[in-house]
Amino acid sequence: MNTLLLGNSIADIKSGAALIKKGGVVAMPTETVYGLSADALKGEAVEKIFKAKGRPMDNPLIVHISDVSDIERFNLVKEFPQKARALAEKFWPGPLTMILKRSDVIPTQVSAGLDTVAIRLPSHTVARVLIRESETVLAAPSANKSGSPSPTTAQHVLDDLDGCIDAVIDGGMCSVGVESTVITLATDTPRLLRPGFITVEQIEEVIGEIEVDDAVLFKLSDDKKAASPGMKYKHYSPKAKVVLVSGGDDAFCAFVNEKYEADKSVGAICYDEDKFELLCKCIPIGKSDDLESQAHLLFDALRQVDELINISTVYARCPQKDGVGMALYNRLIRAAGFEVICLE
Ligand code: TXA
Ligand code: MG
Of 17, 160, 247, 292, which has the most beta carbons under 10 Å away? Predict the structure, then answer.
């Protein structure tokens, strides 16, 4: 298959929509990461997404809408509870995904056999115009090969999926950089399943206390069922080994320098301030207190690791577990296969 590279003009977005109407798969920019989209109401089109990504069929997809009214218009859910409406009011369009009880129009490929569906209204104009022009709602996981870091540029998408999808719409680099916050409102107490740019603290200001699923911060034991199937898979990994290192600035740099002295194939994902102290090749992702920059650059950094020649192990700074730091920690701990070295 020849993958078409489209720009973000209206004409280009309409070409993308035409491909989707024919049952094709098109990668689209969103404010979080690039998504690989198909008509969410056509099971056969959705199957092509799984095939292109190499995604396990038991991992459900997020349905993207272009307006809140799409929920009723396409009859997507059994109920749209008050707390969900309050969150939609506050955070949509934006990087929040809500799990609700699904209606029967959702194909089993989208819900992976669950009785719920994940819904998100992205804020990226190109995504919203594409959904609207497709005259449907779009199922879209991140547009990477299953297991690799999520794509934040059209080039990342092509690196993984060129020749496997119909088109990619280039909307530049994604502003947020990590995938949406996922919260379920299908349980008695709302529960966070995946942390993102919209934080627990912000959500609790709107709907009161929520639970945080164990899989967000800890490795699930093999006998436990994941509430969000995506959380159980190894994820975001470059080919080089990633190790998280928790400790202060001086301790981190001294530790990595010592490793580098012993083994020149060591690299680092670090804060801007560290790069002057480190002897090894390093990829800075922002100042130590600039979590937004760190989120924006994290996945690109994980992809860059494999472009650094002769790097076999990369040491990364271990983020704080609150605010946007929770999202960074959640992604990095998976990239690291849950390996953390504590220096104190
Ligand atoms: O920011 C994002 O959310 C991006 C952009 C493209 O919108 N999409 C994305 O999709 O990250 P994906 O498929 O890579 O991640 C969706 C996560 C997975 O962990 C999946 O298991 C979970 O959401 N999920 C989807 N539907 C679910 C459901 N009904 N119940 C529980 N978890 C669900
Ligand atoms: Mg993904």
Answer: 160
pLDDT by position in tens, the chain (length 344)? 899 999 999 999 999 999 999 999 999 999 999 999 999 999 999 999 999 999 999 999 999 999 999 999 999 999 999 999 999 999 999 999 999 999 999 999 999 999 999 999 999 999 999 999 999 999 999 999 998 999 999 999 999 999 999 999 999 999 999 999 999 999 999 999 999 999 999 999 999 999 999 999 998 877 777 787 777 666 788 889 999 999 999 999 999 999 999 999 999 999 999 999 999 999 999 999 999 999 999 999 999 998 888 899 999 999 999 999 999 999 999 999 998 999 98
Its pTM stands at 0.97
Domains of the chain: 4-216 (3.90.870.10), 241-342 (3.40.50.11030)
CA of 151 to the centre of ligand 2 (A): 9
Phi, psi of 26 (to 5 degrees): -130, 130
Residues lining ligand 1, Cβ inside 6 A: 30, 32-33, 35, 59-62, 95, 97, 99, 111, 114, 116-118, 120, 122, 140-142, 179-180, 182, 193-194, 228-231
DSSP 8-state class, residue 335: H
How many helical (H) and strand (E) elements, i.e. helices and strands, does the chain have?
12, 16
Q: Which residues, in sequence order, are bridge partners of residue 99? A: 118, 184
